[in-house]
Amino acid sequence: MKLLVVGGAGYIGSHTVRQLRRAGHEAVVFDNLSSGHAQAVPDGVTLVRGDLLNPADIRAALDAHQPDAVIHFAALIEVGESMRAPGRYYRNNVTGSLNLLQAIVDTRKIPLVFSSTAAVYGTTDAVPIPENAAMQPESVYGETKLMTERMIHAFHVAHGLPYTILRYFNVCGAAPEGDIGEAHPNKTHLIELACLTALGQREKMMVFGTDYPTPDGSCIRDYVHVQDLADAHVLAVEALHAAHARGQAGQATYNVGLGHGFSVLEVLDAVDRVTGTPLHREVAPRRAGDPPRLVADATRIVRDLGFTPQFTDLDEIVRTAWNWHRTHPDGFRR
Ligand code: UFG
């Protein structure tokens, strides 16, 4: 199968390109390189520099490369920034996705796999969270992902667009080979920050709240390894494409997580063990908008797609992240 991977030069996109090729597929990357890195695109994979905000760019890429399916990662992803710059987020994430959807149905009507997020649920009492939990995003970022999910469904109903939506929980880690990994311009994610602190790039780790109603008082999250998440995309696009070939316009939405959580303090303990450097920790007030516990009910993707995460041990997950950051202390600019 030939895939157009929109946002394929980014963190999750680049790992997915690798896993797609390992599964015998061909990938073409479409990326505006606003946060992605050309170095993350492997030799032999075409990189089309284009922007979803320019509809002609994506139409030209679909025409030129004639893919069998599209995987759409391209988005701005920072919760805090989305609250300060909502216009940028709605324009980039919603209008950009709309341009992509319109181009797909106007040209080829091929299957679409979309990157969504557990942020669409907001604070919920459901633990673990099933896909049919109430959706009340608490950030503009989560809102843009939910709006895009709804647009995709409307295009499915109106135009028969086949789709699978994957709602990621806390994506982390790096390729075990250590050559690609997380390199966002602004760092907010717990494991990445802890690794950079262990490297001495930051003085200490802030623990945002130890007064939550959890066993050790810190927040609990479901940490899914980026390579397992990449494999989830391969499974999703293969299933969607097979159904499409049988004349079915499939539609499905899946949580992607391990189905169990770790607390902030447990993650920091794991980083201490892996790096051999006990981090200086400071308890800080709660961070606005952090729910106490976000854990996926991942039974649906296991049942339907046979999703089998390989990275279930926290130390092993952290080791892959540490290996990447240790060898690339400045990301792709080392
Ligand atoms: N945390 C700290 N100190 C830090 C950074 C984070 O204590 O320096 C805590 C946070 O308060 C939170 C936990 O570590 O309790 C995880 O925080 P991250 O910033 O790593 O991730 P989030 O859970 O906030 O968000 C991530 C993605 C979202 C997605 C969500 C789903 O960024 O897009 O996971 O679970 F929606």
Q: Care to describe what's here?
A:
The structure is a single chain. By secondary structure, this protein is α/β, with parallel strands linked by helices. It folds into 2 domains: 2-171 and 223-256, 3-Layer(aba) Sandwich (Rossmann fold), CATH 3.40.50; 175-221 and 258-333, UDP-galactose 4-epimerase, domain 1. It is 40% helix and 17% strand. The protein contains 10 helices and 14 strands. The strands form 4 sheets. A 7-stranded parallel β-sheet has the order 3-2-1-4-5-6-11, with helices on both faces. Helix 2 runs parallel beside helix 4 (86-107). The longest helix has 22 residues, at 86-107. It is globular. The chain starts with a strand and ends in a 7-residue tail after the last helix. The mean pLDDT is 96. The site of uridine-5'-diphosphate-4-deoxy-4-fluoro-alpha-D-galactose has 20 residues, from helix 6 and strand 8.
CATH class category of the largest domain: Alpha Beta
Q: Which architecture name of the largest domain does CATH use?
A: 3-Layer(aba) Sandwich
What distance separates the N and C termini? 34 Å
Unique ligands: uridine-5'-diphosphate-4-deoxy-4-fluoro-alpha-D-galactose
Which stretches are poorly predicted, pLDDT < 50 over at least 5 residues?
none
Classify the helix fraction into a percent range.
Answer: 25-40%
Question: Any key phrases for this structure?
Answer:
334 residues; Rossmann fold; single chain; UDP_G4E; NAD; three-stranded mixed beta sheet; alpha/beta; UDP-galactose 4-epimerase, domain 1; 2 domains; binds uridine-5'-diphosphate-4-deoxy-4-fluoro-alpha-D-galactose
